[in-house]
Amino acid sequence: MFLFYFQTGYMIYLGETTPLSSLTDQRMDFFNEFAVMASIYTLPLFTDYVPEHETQYSIGWASISIAYIHIFVNWGVITYTSGKQMLQKCKQKYCKTPDKVKISVALQLNNQTEVQAVNEGGP
After folding, report:
1. CA distances (Å), origin 68, targets 13, 57, 63, 73
2. Distance between CA atoms of 114 and 117, rounded to whole angstroms?
3. Which among 106, 39, 105 is positioned nearest to 70, based on CA atoms?
4. Chain segment 61-96, per-residue pLDDT in tens
């Protein structure tokens, strides 16, 4: 019973305050706590409180569905953020290289024209 009250109190705390810095982190924390709370609320239904075994069986599938949704949403967010960061780092790494090459080619061309101008008696 303590777990019910504690989880409900923590959900109220998350709803009223913003303990995390980014909105995505806040939403994920709220979703995770909601999934845990939904799982906790299904646990008493597996006891003798519900006498029909068919009903307990159906509640078991609902509990498994909650766990699967929880896992797949977290997995999707982790995959999305990791892929986004990896793509951003690849863009930073490989987009800088052509700029450096263009600059060095331009400097070489400027140096060559200056050397040609000096050899020809120019400024």
Report:
1. 26, 17, 9, 8
2. 5
3. 39
4. 999 999 999 999 999 999 999 999 999 888 888 876
